[in-house]
């Protein structure tokens, strides 16, 4: 049986992705910090699908624990999908290093720490696939969320480099850019409907991207266009915009 | 987050603050900090229940807690929808004990409205199959209740329109089935007398419902088609279905992409539809096999079918009359509708069995459900129908109501005061208040 490791499994996108894989017979390794919520998800998934589901404690920001975490997995995952992240509070983070570093670690450093280890394994075995959920916010810094954005920019560049490296080993690395998604993280925001995907749409896009070994996927194609345009705005203009 | 909310009838609509939760602790925190709010599931009731300036959506609280495949017991968080439940239970040979005409409602909503289905006369309403509920009450605690435990809370929650608190957990019994198919028998009835006789003769049928043409007059008044259903056994299926009797083919879904102009549905288009529907059934009686999805949820294949009525929305009008007054009452009401040319595109007639409960809608007698697009002369007309319904001892279904007068509510629901007394004990400060509660003056 194939297993998928979901890092940050309590996120809405991860849960939806777990369903997409489980309904096709994949076993699930759910990893997250909140064990209480993870147990709820495990019970749900076990009732829905006849696949083994494991709930595993995982702390993205405890880098030193990552090696032992991977070594202790009950099964070798064929796919590792990274969902964890933290939007944070930009205003607060500007004056509060605690908040800044939490944003950086939860979105970037933590990802690097765990994916370095996963990549090494997959490279040696010459099989596996890595899926990383990054963000369109990483494509250009804006005053409203550049701490989150810069961390995601780091993640995007990291995944791009990793893809380049693992290409030779036949290990696909897939970058997912969901755009707006209706999740817990964005619940308080008034998102424009046509630009907002559901977690399920993200999950379907992820499964498809895995099957087709895609490189960079915008869940809603319109986002590719939007970001192309945003990238093209000259910096002297961009810096004066209220974004 | 502020947004414009309306239920399935698209009337009324209001700018509301919609909150949601994923753990009971989050819900408790919201309930503690908001002065007034009401729970909201999928928004598939038709009127102004589950609407308020602050609503607490249960849709994210939708996980399965346990599914006993041997005993057929389902235990879930209340925000899960029936279509998700079906997806899980059907392959194991289980079905919902009771289902309304759409599967896009939440289990919590099914409890709060104590929904009924085509098997009401044989299996009762949804809450009769509920073993355990958990409700987050105004006290801030999640309380467990059942027919034997915390009965006051249980009684006010079953059919209580969300006024007792936030339903968080539902454990209910399922129905054993052999196949995903229904053996459907359709019988034509030329008028009201005939359809009443057919209902009486078919009380032993598991499912029964009639589609009725409410634009007919005179000797054709009440022309209808009775649709009976039984869960098909494996040996009743054609060979090709027997290998996978619990599997049905996915069908293409349609959608009404935007609100159609209000004139789309007029008495001419409805007449044409009704004529075709009645005459499509050539023989007096026909039996065939149909999958459960088509049988129970024909309208679910057209997403947003509510947009058919235009942006002013529509009102579902469903009433029930006690058995004794049913024939006379229906005759009068159908005559009124036909006289006014207030044709309803969908008109469904059913014979209910007896029903317990404080605010549960069904009672032994006939129920008729109608859709009317909102237009200026509609509400006075419905007030007129209300008079007839209540004079005969009947009542209006709260989950579909958006316009009934408070005094009619008290007249129709004989146990309303008992309900309100119990509610007063549970929520003395009136925290759980919907637009419907305000409109109907539901307070002691």
UniProtKB/TrEMBL annotation, chain A:
Keyword Oxidoreductase annotated: yes
GO cellular component, one term: membrane
GO molecular-function terms, A-Z: serine 3-dehydrogenase activity
Domain of life: Bacteria
Keyword presence, Oxidoreductase: yes
Name of a matching Pfam family: adh_short
Keywords: Oxidoreductase
Enzyme Commission identifier(s): 1.1.1.276
Classification via PANTHER family: DEHYDROGENASE/REDUCTASE SDR FAMILY MEMBER 7B, SHORT CHAIN DEHYDROGENASE FAMILY PROTEIN
NCBIfam families hit by this protein: PRK07102.1 (NF005489)
Family membership noted in the UniProt record: Belongs to the short-chain dehydrogenases/reductases (SDR) family.
Protein name: Serine 3-dehydrogenase
Species for this entry: Cesiribacter andamanensis AMV16
TrEMBL record, chain B:
Top-level enzyme category: oxidoreductase
EC numbers: 1.-.-.-
Domain FAD-binding PCMH-type, chain residue ranges per copy: 11-177
Annotated InterPro entries: FAD-bd_PCMH, FAD-bd_PCMH-like_sf, FAD-bd_PCMH_sub2, FAD-linked_Oxidoreductases_BP, Oxid_FAD_bind_N
Pfam family, one: FAD_binding_4
Signal peptide start and end residues: none
Keyword presence, Chaperone: no
UniProt entry tagged with the keyword rRNA-binding: no
Keywords: Oxidoreductase
MF terms in GO: FAD binding; oxidoreductase activity
Similarity section: Belongs to the oxygen-dependent FAD-linked oxidoreductase family.
Protein name, as recorded: Putative decaprenylphosphoryl-beta-D-ribose oxidase
Gene that this polypeptide is encoded by: dprE1
């Amino acid at each position: 049986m194939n297993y998928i490791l979901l890092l940050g499994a309590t996120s809405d996108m991860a849960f939806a992705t777990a369903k997409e894989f489980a309904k096709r017979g994949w076993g699930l390794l759910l990893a997250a910090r909140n064990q209480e919520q993870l147990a709820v998800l495990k019970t749900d998934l076990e009732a829905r699908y006849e696949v083994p589901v494991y709930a595993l404690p995982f702390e993205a920001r405890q880098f030193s624990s990552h090696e032992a975490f991977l070594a202790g997995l009950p099964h070798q995952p064929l796919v590792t999908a990274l969902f964890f992240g933290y939007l944070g509070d930009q205003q607060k983070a500007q004056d509060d290093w605690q908040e800044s570093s939490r944003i950086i670690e939860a979105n970037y450093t933590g990802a690097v720490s765990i994916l370095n280890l996963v990549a090494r394994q997959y490279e040696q075995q010459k099989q596996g696939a890595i899926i990383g959920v990054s963000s369109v916010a990483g494509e250009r810094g804006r005053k409203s969320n550049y701490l989150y954005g810069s961390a995601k920019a780091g993640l995007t560049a990291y995944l791009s480099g990793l893809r380049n490296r693992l290409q030779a080993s036949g290990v696909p690395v897939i970058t997912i850019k969901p755009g707006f998604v209706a999740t817990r993280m964005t619940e308080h925001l008034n998102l424009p409907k046509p630009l907002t995907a559901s977690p399920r749409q993200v999950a379907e896009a992820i499964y498809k991207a895995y099957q087709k070994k895609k490189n960079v996927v915008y869940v809603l194609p319109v986002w590719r266009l939007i970001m192309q345009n945003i990238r093209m705005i000259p910096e002297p203009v961009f810096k004066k915009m209220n974004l | 987050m502020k947004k414009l909310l309306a239920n399935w009838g698209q009337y009324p609509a209001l700018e509301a603050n919609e909150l949601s939760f994923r753990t009971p602790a989050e819900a408790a925190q919201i309930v503690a900090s908001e002065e007034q709010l009401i729970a909201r599931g999928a928004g598939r009731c038709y009127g102004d229940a589950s609407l308020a300036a602050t609503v607490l959506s249960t849709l994210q609280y939708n996980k399965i807690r346990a599914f006993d495949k041997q005993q057929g017991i389902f235990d879930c968080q209340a925000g899960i929808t029936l279509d998700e439940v079906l997806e899980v239970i059907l392959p194991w040979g289980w079905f919902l004990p009771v289902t309304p005409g759409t599967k896009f409602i939440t289990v919590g909503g099914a409890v709060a409205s104590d929904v009924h289905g085509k098997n009401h006369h044989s299996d009762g309403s949804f809450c009769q199959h509920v073993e355990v509920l958990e409700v987050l009450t105004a006290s801030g605690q999640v309380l467990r209740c059942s027919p034997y435990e915390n009965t006051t809370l249980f009684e006010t929650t079953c059919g209580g329109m969300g006024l007792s608190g936030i339903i968080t957990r539902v454990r209910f019994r399922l129905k054993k089935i052999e196949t995903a198919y229904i053996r459907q028998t359709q019988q034509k009835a030329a008028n009201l007398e005939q359809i009443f006789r057919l209902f009486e003769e078919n009380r032993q049928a598991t499912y029964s419902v009639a589609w009725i043409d409410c634009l007919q007059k005179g000797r054709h008044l009440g022309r209808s088609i009775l649709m009976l259903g039984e869960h098909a056994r494996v040996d009743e299926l054609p060979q090709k279905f027997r290998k996978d009797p619990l599997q049905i083919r996915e069908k293409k879904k349609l959608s009404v992409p935007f609100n159609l102009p209000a004139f789309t549905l007029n008495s001419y288009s409805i007449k044409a539809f009704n004529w075709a529907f009645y005459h499509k059934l050539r023989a007096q009686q026909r039996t065939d096999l149909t999958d459960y999805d088509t049988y129970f949820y024909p309208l679910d294949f057209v997403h947003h079918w509510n947009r058919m009525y235009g942006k002013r929305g529509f009102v579902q009008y469903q009433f029930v009359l006690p058995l004794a007054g049913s024939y006379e009452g229906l005759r009068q009401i159908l005559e009124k509708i036909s006289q006014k040319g207030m044709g309803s595109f969908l008109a469904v007639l059913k014979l209910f069995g007896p029903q317990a409960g404080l605010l549960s809608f069904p009672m032994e007698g006939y129920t008729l459900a109608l859709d009317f697009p909102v237009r200026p002369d509609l509400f006075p007309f419905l007030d007129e129908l209300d008079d007839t319904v209540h004079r005969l001892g009947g009542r209006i279904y709260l989950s579909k109501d958006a316009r009934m007068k408070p005094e009619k509510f008290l007249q129709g629901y004989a146990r309303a005061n008992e309900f309100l007394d119990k509610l007063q004990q549970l929520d003395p400060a009136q925290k759980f208040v919907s637009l419907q509660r305000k409109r109907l003056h539901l307070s002691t």
